[in-house]
Amino acid sequence: MSTEVEVKYTKILINNEWVDAKSGKTFPDINACTGGSICDVAEGDKVDVDVAVKTAREAFKLDSPWRTMDASDRGLLLGKLADLIERDADYLARLESLDNGKPVKEANFDVGFTVKCYRYYAGWCDKIQGKTIPIDGDFLCYTRHEPIGVVGQIIPWNFPMLMQAWKMAPALCCGNTIVLKPAEQTPLTALYVGALCKEAGFPPGVVNIVPGYGPTAGAAISEHRDVDKVAFTGSTEVGHLIMQAAGKSNLKNVTLELGGKSPNIIFADADLDHAVETSHFALFFNQGQCCCAGSRTFVEESIYDEFVRRSVERARKRKVGDPLASDVEQGPQVDGEQFSKIMSLIDSGKQEGAKLECGGERHGNEGFFIQPTVFSNVEDDMRIAKEEIFGPVMQILKFKTVEEVIERANKTQYGLAASVFTKDIDKALRVAHAVRAGSMWVNTYDVFRCNAPFGGYKMSGVGRELGEYGLQQYSEIKTVAIKVTKKNS
Asked: pLDDT tens digit string along 17-29?
């Protein structure tokens, strides 16, 4: 399979300089298509994080170039970064596809959304405003929205470009400095964007990027007493660890975007062709490696068999192969660990009595490819209906009534996203308002825009990303009250 993408940056970025890990260690970045190594990347750990945090703190100190920069000039820097990403969009999409395994056409979408995200927050930089408050007494009272300080950001491997933008753009917009750890499976585009930050003109120490492993570099960020906030996207299991580390250290501000087991509800009056195709997309997009995947497909009893038949037909047509090929819909899973987890859950589905309609096996002879898989006759208490599979495995469940499906949809520890397909507006609104999830889509799926917030209920996370709501995660609100001689209205 094609691997003709030049890798340009593999070291740690601290203070706008590329450096080796203090230990001298590197780790292999694995090609998901072959199981072989793409390149070796500097393996940062606690010592490197300490240096990066110290550098970020220096860049954040009072009267530094970053702290005294006009807000509109911060916006110009974010806009310049967006322009540079757009300039190198084709290269970045191919690098993302190589490193992650996602089809290059999906990587192209991710890069385009990344550009829009930086431009969106560039426009916000000089529009973050406090208020004057008419408190009782002879006082002038107002609020300031101040940057939190040094922000640690830990991003996942499923959407490396997008998750870096979703976190860095609002943090920089608000005037924070950053120590970012990319996922060890997919560090390459994060490092390249770091180089573009330097080219755009961000002052030294504002953006620092430390590749490394979660239990070492990631833990060091979460536990660090001079990191003022940590933002993480990834598994709920690791989210627990980060919350615990924040509590045991300096009670740092925490934003978490975690796992999901999102219900996708199909009523009998829905446009069936549209519901089948959109449900296929909702599950199989990005090899199923999506936190908000529509991974519990509830179908009304009267159309269940036909929906299953059409869904199986569509899954069998899905083209799996080289992600750098323009006609491929599905690439490999990100690594061997993820591959093994998915195959184990497929086996559990078979053993617990779900009907395997198609797929269920490895695709090809090398790499981490899995056949598009569909299960029918799935029950709520099966592992494949409860656990986040994070792979190309569709579970189709049957329901009879609106109240029944609402109750079953909410019977989960997660609450990230949900969807409903129906032509009945009353039914759509009933479900949309009753299901406890941070995002609800009606007759569509995975609608993301820079100005619309995203985040979860329950164990799917804390806080929101994107939109004006995303800015709230990166600012502290200070109240100032000044004694005056006499107040006038």
From this structure: 999 999 999 999 9
Best CA proximity match to 285, nearest among 159, 156, 193 = 159
Task: Give, in order, the Cα–Cα distances in Å from 489 to each of 135, 143, 319, 403.
Answer: 11, 18, 69, 54
d(CA 439, CA 163): 17
Run of H or E residues at 192: helix 188-200
Cβ count within 10 A of residue 160: 27
Question: DSSP readout, 465-482?
Answer: BSHHHHHGGGEEEEEEEE
Query: Maximum distance among all alpha carbons in the chain?
Result: 82
Question: Which of 257, 329, 357, 465 does the annotation list as catalytic?
Answer: 257
CA angle 69, 72, 73 (to 5 degrees): 50
pTM across the whole model:
0.96
The predicted pLDDT at position 3 comes to 54
pLDDT surpassing 70 at residue 1: no
Say if residues 226 and 55 touch (Cβ distance below 8 Å).
no
Termini Cα distance of the chain: 73
pLDDT recorded at residue 189: 98
Told to judge if 6 belongs to the known catalytic residues of this protein, a careful annotator would answer no
State mean pLDDT over 428-445. 98
Residue 257 annotated as catalytic: yes
Backbone angles phi, psi at 396, to 5 degrees: -115, 120
What's the confidence (pLDDT) of residue 4? 78
Catalytic residue among 290, 291, 358, 450: 291
| Percent of the chain predicted with pLDDT > 70 | 99
